[in-house]
TrEMBL record:
The keyword DNA-binding does not apply. Pfam families: NMO. Residues 1-15 form the signal peptide. InterPro entries: Aldolase_TIM, NMO. The keyword Signal applies. Keywords: Flavoprotein, FMN, Monooxygenase, Oxidoreductase, Signal. Belongs to the nitronate monooxygenase family. NMO class I subfamily. This is Uncharacterized protein. GO terms for molecular function: nitronate monooxygenase activity.
Length: 312
């Protein structure tokens, strides 16, 4: 997988890896629709389950026009990291995304079979550290992202990373339509994370009530807090309230601990980003991609029109 290969995607979009949302059906549908699909390995409760997921995805995307990625938690509390890395070496996902820790543990393994490593970063300091560690790309997790989120504007973040990094930049945060994708690429991104837009996809693993909550909600229905996982994350207030939390008083940041069974700990706490307004129905992922392409094409025409005007 190379940067040039990414540029051959139908759209420069990745269906972002989402906790308890992204599974084989979503990843496969994304790749078959010509974009990239990704899932976080903690969505599998055991290494055996992860083995099955990766085997299925690798087989069913072999001839797809898009591609796929596995997202690893590299924080020291993840006791299963070594097992996950062994399965990465076995199944060779074209893209590996590291989160909540250094990309270093994955780099040699992924480079050995020709894949690329993208590292989640939430600020320029972490971006410089990931680049120095050898990451092929940086995922700029910006303000407005669902789940674990950043605090920088997507546009400011892309610009600051481009000052020192010429590798792949993927950006996510409040981007939910084709026009937003075009704007991010115009600003210097190679790839754009879309998460919230795909939560209500038919292929999503999300609970039906979660999907409907995303359809019904808007950005005002979110709260950002580190009280749940120890890292700032964007949560749907209604899901917190249903689980017994007070969304207006979530308390101090929790201790970071990504070991054990995250699915059991946070199963009923539902995340989303500021792109909620773009989700109007539960729909097949392929239709969502079609809608993104329509918006992308219109936005590219608007940009081209400015170029034509300057030529006259």
């Amino acid at each position: 997988m190379s940067r040039a290969a990414l540029h051959k995607l139908r759209l420069p979009v990745m269906a972002a890896p989402m906790f308890l949302v992204s599974g084989p059906d979503m990843v496969i549908a994304a790749a078959r629709s010509g974009i990239a699909g990704a899932f976080p390995t903690p969505n599998c409760r055991t290494a055996d389950e992860l083995d099955r997921w990766m085997e299925q995805i690798a087989q069913e995307t072999a001839d797809a026009p898009g591609t796929w990625a596995a997202n690893l938690v590299t924080h020291s509390s993840n006791a299963r990291l070594a097992d996950d890395l062994a399965l990465v070496a076995k199944h060779k996902p074209p893209i590996v995304i590291t989160a909540l820790g250094s990309p270093a543990p994955a780099i040699n393994i992924v480079h050995h079979y020709g894949g690329i490593v993208l590292a989640d970063v939430v600020d320029e300091r972490l971006g410089r550290k990931a680049a120095a560690a050898g990451a092929d790309g940086l995922v700029a997790v910006a303000s407005g992202a669902g789940g674990h989120t950043g605090s920088l504007s997507p546009f400011a973040f892309i610009s600051s990373l481009r000052q020192f990094f010429d590798g792949v930049i993927c950006v996510g945060g409040a981007i939910a339509d084709g026009a937003g994708v075009a704007g991010a690429v115009a600003a210097g991104a190679d790839l754009v994370y879309l998460g919230t837009r795909f939560i209500a996809a038919e292929e999503s693993l999300a609970d039906p009530a979660y999907k409907q909550m995303v359809v019904d909600a808007r950005a005002a229905d979110l709260v950002v807090s580190a009280a749940i996982t120890g890292t700032p994350a964007s949560w749907l207030k209604a899901s917190l309230a249903s689980a017994g939390y007070d969304p207006d008083d979530l308390g101090k940041p929790a201790t970071r601990d990504y070991g054990g069974d995250p699915a059991k700990k946070w199963r009923d706490l539902w995340a989303a980003g500021q792109g909620l307004h773009a989700v109007s129905e539960i729909a097949p992922l392929a239709r969502i991609v079609d809608e993104l392409e329509t918006g992308w094409t219109a936005a590219c025409r608007r940009l081209a029109a400015f170029g034509d005007k300057n030529d006259t």
